[in-house]
Design brief:
Blueprint (H helix, E strand, L loop, with lengths): L2 H13 L6 H5 L2 E3 L8 E3 L2 H8 L3 H11 L10 E3 L3 E4 L3 H11 L15 E5 L14 H16 L3 E5 L7 H13 L2 H6 L1 H15 L2 E3 L5 E3 L4 H14 L3 H25 L9 H4 L3 H10 L3 E4 L2 E4 L8 E4 L7 H16 L3 E7 L3 H14 L5 E7 L2 E2 L16 H18 L10 H21 L7 E2 L2 H5 L6 H17 L4 H6 L9 H11 L1 H10 L4 H20 L8 H24 L9
Helix pairs in contact: 1-4, 3-4, 5-21, 7-9, 7-10, 14-15, 16-17, 19-23, 19-24, 21-23, 21-24, 22-23, 23-24
The chain binds one RNA strand through helix 3, strand 11, helix 15, helix 16 and helix 19.
RNA sequence: GCGCCCGUAGCUCAGGGGAUAGAGCAUCGGUUUCCUAAACCGGUGGUCGCAGGUUCAAAUCCUGCCGGGCGUACCA
């Protein structure tokens, strides 16, 4: 049940005789900002009164008279300059919450018109170890895919690995010139990482016009690395063999991380997969005069003042624009999606703007292309973390630290509930709590803001964190253990819900908002809408837990009712966290 | 130069036309015969970068300025 949508629909009906464009005003119905005003508020009377040259309270009264929701709402009140304050009837609220227990969708109906989404996320350069910079794309993309799927859409996840670009030229150059063969035999992934960083460091830096350091394109090593890339792309046997030798180790490394993060993909078509299609793309774009030769390269031009996008370099190598174009065509042919979502750092905004522009000119007009951009990862001091240096801030060690921090908190906790657990169970709890903390720290932040990487903040386990939700969940489950409650029976035959005190009512109201929170998160592609909702829910539940005895409730009916509210809360928390890719534990 | 983004409490950030601007952390104080204190309750803390404008109503929209980040032809 989506309460907000119901109220807005009814408001729109009520407005149909009053306003010319009711839809423009029905959106002005929102959850109340202050609970003293009620549960929801409609702010449309003021602008409408202005338009009709009437007094706002008069219009508000007219709206209220036409709003036929007597079974849903208490009589609405009009306050201040013309706010219409709405409060749900307790009986109605109780019935709706009870209805949520049926099935496993928690009142969230699948969308009426399912769409097909391709979600392109994570996409690391596999030539180097995964870095905290890869975290955002990976977990935001995974969360969006989970959410869209739950809402009933068709979702294809595709990890567009960087397995064919310049970074492999660097590896090839490093392998040929600086290889430590015994190190490679012992730890191929580690040696490849070392080579990558080593070669990068050899390259000269120049100071540009803005006085900043940047890489010198004329540096001999940079040129040599580019030449290795070009040879690989043109089918050089030696380079191709080396590449094939490197790849399994690269896969192994990223797979290990994905297993730990509980992230998986339907497809892993890296850049190399599209390599055979690239020459065709360039040929076609030239044929249609979308691309032209320019300064020895092949480029697509935009406005006078805008810089072009290269689809083939002077040395013959293709660029990631070319690969992305081939990828779009492949995805269209393969899955015929309504939309492709690219979960990528905002710094690639221009690339996607150009890419989408080229796709339109190429003739693909219907497909929705979205750059789901997110702020870049900054270091503790606020400067962007360089992914090129390759040192420090490795994803793997971050996860280890998070799990260790969770273990420390756990060991300090003297709770009777957890004192008897086996080592294996404890390790599992540390892992779930630690990884959850890292994921949540990222997901709870507004996607579009820059992300200041703070180990302390990421490992925080109080406040608005996954741990807080997991803890609320674990305490909740403990009630059912201690009471020997059969949840299945209760879910099949839910008892009536009684709202006798404010804490019960607030909890019921918050539970009913789950559906809308998911829709907002999906509409804006913002997982933070889910974390915000869960934080409110868990806080509301904590108030309930504190003040409302469940097993020792005054009457059997009240006990049943509260058990139902508890069970529903646990299920919503668990499902909400699940949509974020975060797990729960039964005790902690 | 041009383009995109950001400036809100000591710190990290929500809110992006609506009532007295919110939260977490930090700080100060209180709560455990009671289903997990990884919890709860309360206090302190704000010229919403600055200046104009639009509006019944601006932190929110528009313009300009100041400060910061990022991008801008052969990295991805």
């Amino acid at each position: 049940m989506n309460v907000l949508a119901l109220l807005q629909r009814k408001l729109q009906e009520a407005l149909s005789g009053l306003a010319n464009d009711p839809a423009a005003y029905s959106g002005m119905l929102k959850p109340a900002q202050d609970t003293r005003f009620g549960d929801y508020q409609a702010n449309c009377a003021m602008p409408l009164a202005k338009q009709l040259d009437k007094k706002p309270p008069e219009i508000a009264r007219a709206i209220v008279e036409r709003l036929h929701l007597e079974d849903v709402l208490e009589p609405p009140t009009i306050a201040g300059p013309g706010f219409i304050n709405l409060k749900l009837r307790d009986e109605w609220l109780a019935r709706q919450v009870r209805a949520m227990t049926k099935g496993d969708r928690l009142g969230v109906a699948p969308v009426e018109n399912p769409r097909t989404f391709v979600v392109d996320f994570s996409s690391p350069n596999v030539a180097k170890p995964m870095h905290v910079g890869h975290l955002r794309s990976t977990i935001i993309g995974d969360a969006l895919a989970r959410l869209l799927r739950f809402l009933g859409h068709n979702v294809v996840t595709d990890n567009h690995l960087g397995d064919w670009g310049t970074q492999f030229g660097i590896l090839l150059y490093g392998y040929k010139n600086f290889l430590d063969a015994s190190a490679f035999a012992a730890d191929p992934v580690g040696e490849l990482a070392r080579l990558y960083v080593h070669v990068r460091k050899q390259m000269k830096k120049v100071v540009n016009a803005q006085g900043e350091e940047e890489e010198d394109a004329n540096d001999p090593i940079a040129q040599a690395a580019r030449a290795e890339t070009a040879k690989l792309h043109s089918g050089d046997t030696e380079n191709l063999n080396l590449w094939q030798q490197f790849m399994p180790h690269c896969y192994e490394e990223i797979e290990r991380i994905y297993r730990r993060l509980d992230v998986c993909f339907d497809h892993t078509h890296g850049e190399s997969f599209y390599q055979p299609m690239l020459a065709d793309v360039v040929r076609e774009l030239r044929l249609h005069n979308i691309a032209q030769e320019s300064e020895g390269a092949v480029a697509v031009f935009f406005g006078e003042k805008d810089s072009p996008a290269l689809i083939q370099k002077r040395d013959g190598a293709f660029t990631y624009t070319t690969t992305d174009l081939a990828t779009i065509r492949y995805r269209l042919e393969q899955w015929n999606p309504h939309a492709i979502l690219y979960v990528v750092d905002f710094r690639q905004g221009l690339h996607f703007k150009q890419l989408f522009d080229i796709v339109r000119r190429w003739g693909y007009e219907k497909i929705e292309l979205q750059h789901i951009s997110f702020g870049s990862v900054l270091g503790e001091e606020g400067r962007p973390i360089s992914t090129r240096e390759g040192t420090g801030a490795l994803l793997d060690s971050l996860l280890n630290e998070a799990v260790a921090a969770a273990a420390r908190v756990y060991e300090q906790n003297q709770a009777e509930e957890t004192s008897q657990l086996s080592d294996e169970e404890r390790r599992r709890i540390h892992e779930v709590v630690g990884i959850g903390a890292v994921k949540y720290a990222d997901l709870s932040q507004n996607r579009t803001s820059d992300y200041r990487f703070s180990l302390k903040k990421m490992l925080a386990m109080d406040g608005n964190t996954a741990t807080y939700m997991q803890y609320a969940y674990a305490r909740n489950r403990s009630i059912f253990r201690r009471g020997n409650i059969e949840v299945a029976a209760m879910r099949n035959d839910p008892p009536p819900v009684l709202l006798t005190v404010g804490e019960e009512r607030s909890l019921a109201l918050q539970l009913l908002r789950f559906h809308n929170a998911l829709l907002v998160a999906a509409a804006e592609y913002k997982p933070s809408a889910i974390t915000g909702y869960l934080w409110d829910l868990a806080k509301t539940y904590s108030g309930f837990f504190q003040n409302c005895p469940v097993l020792k409730a005054e009457t059997a009916e009240l006990r049943q009712s509260r058990l139902l509210l508890c069970d529903l809360t646990a299920r919503v928390i668990q499902r909400g966290l699940d949509l974020l890719g975060i797990r729960t534990v039964e005790r902690m």
